[in-house]
Amino acid sequence: MRSVHVIVEGDVQGVGYRYTLRLEADRAGVAGWVRNRLDGSVEAVVEGADDRVDDVLAWMAEGPPGARVDRARVTDADPAQLSGFEVRDTA
Known about the structure:
InterPro entries: Acylphosphatase (IPR020456), Acylphosphatase-like_dom (IPR001792), Acylphosphatase-like_dom_sf (IPR036046), Acylphosphatase_CS (IPR017968)
Order of helices and strands: EHEEHEE
Strand order of the largest sheet: 4-1-3-2-5
Largest sheet: 5 strands, mixed
GO molecular function: acylphosphatase activity
EC number: 3.6.1.7
Organism: Microbacterium radiodurans
Family: Belongs to the acylphosphatase family.
Shape: globular
Low-confidence stretches: none
């Protein structure tokens, strides 16, 4: 079980990044959440099997069509035993 906190910078708001990430997370079978931040970045927590989290992180580094990811900062986090993947309000 791996849990990570991710900040994605670039043109990642207004391009469907959060909702497409939710689809990718559901497909991979990982839990967590994603939200826009006031500084224009996207913040997420992804939790699940190591290889599944790695798959989602690889997607996050590219994003959906129309997004431009300049940087994805990934830090390990303590597992929170989350279930499902949700899109949260802007922080």
